[in-house]
Design goal:
5 helices, mainly alpha
Length: 150
């Protein structure tokens, strides 16, 4: 298969993922039940994540890299997000201390684990963006060991 044929297949799949997310989002907006919204939103987020993964694959296969200007702006933005994630985690831990219901506590613990994962993701991406000459190979290596994508 040629590179252009592969790119077309990846782009078509990406469009499908985005359309699926859009349709599901519409269903979420109509849902009155918060538990139904919770589960459907997970599907929306997964579809959007898949679309992003496909775009990353297209970009990496094309040899697309981030410019130095983008890197500096990204680095500053990511550092601000690290502070926000830390604040969210601290607040959640305070709430967890006060929560008595075991089922509610379990749900809050899942959120806290997500926040910890978000912090690891932000640290990793900030580190890569800070590299002066980040190569596509370095991005591939990060993706390969990035169980946090899933």
């Amino acid at each position: 298969m040629s590179a252009s044929e592969l790119e077309k297949l990846l782009r078509d799949q990406m469009v499908l993922e985005k359309k699926t997310a859009e349709v599901l989002s519409s269903t979420v907006q109509k849902a009155k039940n918060s538990v139904v919204r919770l589960f459907l939103n997970r599907l929306v987020l997964d579809s959007l994540k898949h679309a992003d993964m496909l775009q990353a694959l297209i970009d990496l296969n094309a040899g697309t890299i981030v410019t130095m200007v983008d890197k500096e702006e990204m680095k500053d933005s990511l550092e601000r997000h690290v502070v926000q994630e830390k604040e969210m985690l601290d607040r959640l831990e305070r709430i967890l201390e006060k929560m008595e219901d075991p089922k509610g506590k379990s749900l809050l613990k899942q959120i806290a684990e997500d926040e910890k994962r978000h912090h690891r993701i932000l640290d990793e991406v900030t580190k890569i963006v800070s590299w002066r000459g980040a190569t596509d190979e370095q991005w591939w290596n990060t993706i390969d060991r990035a169980e946090w994508l899933f």
